[in-house]
Amino acid sequence: MRPALLALHVATALALPPLLLGVVNRTKALFAGRRGAPLLQPWLDLWRLWRKGTVFSPTTTWIFRAAPVVAVATALCAALFVPLAGQTPPLSFAGDLVFVAYLFALGRFFTIAAALDTGSAFEGMGGAREATFSALAEPALFLGLLVLVRRSGSLSLAAMLGPGLAASWTAAGASLLAVLVSLVVVLLAESSRIPFDDPNTHLELTMIHEVMVLDHSGPTLGMALYGAAVKMFVLGALVVRLALPFSLGGPWADWAVFLAGLLALAVLVGVVESVMARLRLTQVPNLLVAACLLSFFGLLLLARTP
Amino acid sequence: MNEALVLGGTALAALSGVPGLFLDRRAPTPHGERAATALLAAAAALGVAGAAGALLATAPSSGLALPWSVPGGVLAVRVDAVAAMFLLQIFVVAALGAVYGLEYWALRDHPDDGRKLRLFYGLMTAGMALLVVARNTVLFLGGWEIMALAAFFTVTTEDRDPAVRQVGFVYLVATRLGTLCLLAFFALLHHATGGFGFVGPPGGAAASPGLATALFVLGVAGFGLKAGLMPLHVWLPGAHSAAPSHVSALMSGVLIKMGIYGLVRLGALFADPPLWWGGTLLALGAASGVLGVAFAIGQHDLKRLLAYHSVENIGIIVMGLGLALLGRSLGRADLVALGLAGALLHTWNHGLFKSLLFLGAGAVVHATHTREIDHLGGLARAMPRTAALFLVGAVAICGLPPLNGFVSELCVYLGLFRAVTMPGGGLAWLGAGLAAPALALIGALAVACFVKVVGAVFLGTPRTAHAAGAHEPGARMLVPMAVLAALCALIGVAPALVAPIVARAVDAWAAFALTPAAATAVAPSAAGGVAAPLADVVPFGWISVASAALIAFLAAGGWALRARLRTAPTAVAPTWDCGYAAPTPRMQYTSSSFAQMLVGLFGWALRPQTHTPHLAGLFPHKAHFQSHVPDAVLDRAALPAAARAARALGWFRWMQHGSIHAYLVYVLVTLLVLLLWRGALA
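^ Those are the sequences you sent over. The predicted structure of the assembly is below.
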């Protein structure tokens, strides 16, 4: 059964991320009273982009071409370390949570560098915002993971989000709730969704992720978008597992619960985007600092529990 | 045997600049600089052989001890695993820097100061090697002073420039203050141990809690000043940016680590340090790390920016050291191993990637004659090799996989996480719980800072004619950088290769306080001096597996895109700038604008200074906007305090009139008074 589950893990990590975007978009369409594009539309878009030609600016260097590759490679590599449905992931070691977080940082490094490579003021602006906001999201992520580290007494994601998680909810529910909320905020910030960034905006001045990949076209744009989708999927998998820690007894049933949870998360993101406006850029740091503090309260609450 | 090799290397390094003094500096073939480099390379070969011999030896060496006529001084040297780690770093970086200097500071281009630079470069290297192997406090201080004073003369290589003289003066004051603290420290240590042995048997400090605290505070102040620990870093940004780049590389990569070396030895003196020592170091390290990188983000002088990153990385190292002390206080062998391994390995790693970055910055300065980041841009086209090597250093210093910075930061993270899982409440786990997110913040800010540097210096289009006229440096500058980059990649991908060395050093450190002589330490504890086996607590093999997985994904993705682009129709068109068809280099985002949001967020500490023009009327005149982040500690604390002290101590000036014979009289009178006092006591 184990090889089949591992194959399912890899297949899900490869295939599902664009589908989640399809669900988000469909939710937004329904909220707006439209029928919306098919759920497979993001995959069709990626396929279309892959077959198209590209345009490169004469200012760019090899870093511009390498950045989308790094974005996809780091996100897919991270997906190998994150437990899906509470199952042990293909790779796992003590401290892999740091590796996963730093993989995302590596992808971010190259994405911003590619934005600066174009020499455009707008893309530099987007890069500066990405660097600033993710610097504030990083402590929130680590504080949240620290709560799980202390609860589980373990340093690998597989054990932190493993079978013991359900018992943690009964023993330290308030802490985990604070972490859950904080991680949802981190998820929205890191995957550039409302209220941090509007993926549908048409004004370069206000964008973050979209403006950084403004000069990418064809296959490189497709890779950048796919990498962003996988990153959202990986963070989403953490959130879903934290929110639905129980086990129904068998791995296949757990997988069903997990996939339903991911679907619900995508719907939630769509709902948030439909009912909320984007925050003013000056207020984004406040929200991220609030997420840090929330996670820290979660950690403080653990002082009393053994 | 190993000691003799190291001492031979030290002597060769000290003499490396001497032949050049007697050779024609304007000769068409520069024999002087070649002799200096050859001697330093030979010195490095001897030193590396000695250090490697000590690391491979099965039994610990008993060292060398020769009589010395200086009171209290014995020529006692011993190379243990900790010393060997520092020795390797000193000799490797010094030799690579000397090769780099052949082209960067060629005697032909700098006939006035090229010989002086080489003389003091060699002396600085020798001083560091001597202090690391010294087992006698007088000998240690001798090495320390040779290093500190030689560093002053290398920093002020271009002493025609008043700005360089000024930063040299700040450095000199700082290093004198540090030595003053160390003199008091060693006097108290002599009081506690009754001997002049610095480390190694007979060691261990038997001290009352008050004396132990005084030793700790003085040691942290004296060694912290040299290491550049915030807020004692005031001399560092100026000195690192004013010195020639290969000197900056040696200073930032190695010299400030001598302060770390002192702190490591200080930590080993006590078998059971109080909990607050480790806590203080952890807090100082975290503050140094966060504020160091925050100040770095605000800089627009390339070398100054790199200098602030040294403050940051020293912070990470001191966090590891604090963790090791906490582990010792709590009797947690795993925390000792992880904290110390993280500190020592990060000392190496920082030595590699920071030297690489300074050499890369030197190549940029050499090619463009400016250090101003906002005047550069687009250099990756003119100097692709330098850009690629600098990129390796930038990714490594951010602690990103698959390079070496990740390995040492992971050790510190693992230690902090383990501290968080300690059962029960208490301040220790909460402190660790705050330090881990601080380390995460440091990492994320470092990414922001270095992507800014890489982007503003090497990517985009040239902003000025200086940048447009850049050229790739020659092999003598590129090869040392390539060697450093290769070492960064090697340690990152296969950390298991260096793990045994680090493990030996950790064991040597941890075992020290358990030597019989230390049984009288503050309050001996059974578990205090033991470190867990390093391979049990750090997954070195898994780091390689994870790095290999990442590299495989990168290779597959790169191959796929390459294959696709080969057949896809590719067009070239100007950058999309919202429909504006003629973007100019001046429209690019500058490093200052990139940093503006983060500088604003940290404005409470950085105190940025901006000059905003007042625009009025329908057709305002041409106006300038400028902003910069000066060193808040130097400008707002250190300089005012120095000025106040100068006023308060003004009446001492009658003694200070610069005539040597009067100073000799002071020395004589002091000696006589001390002799009489001694006689009266007897």
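The first strand of chain A starts at residue 54 and ends at 56. Chain A touches chain B through 86 residues (CB under 8 Å).

Shout if you want it in another format.
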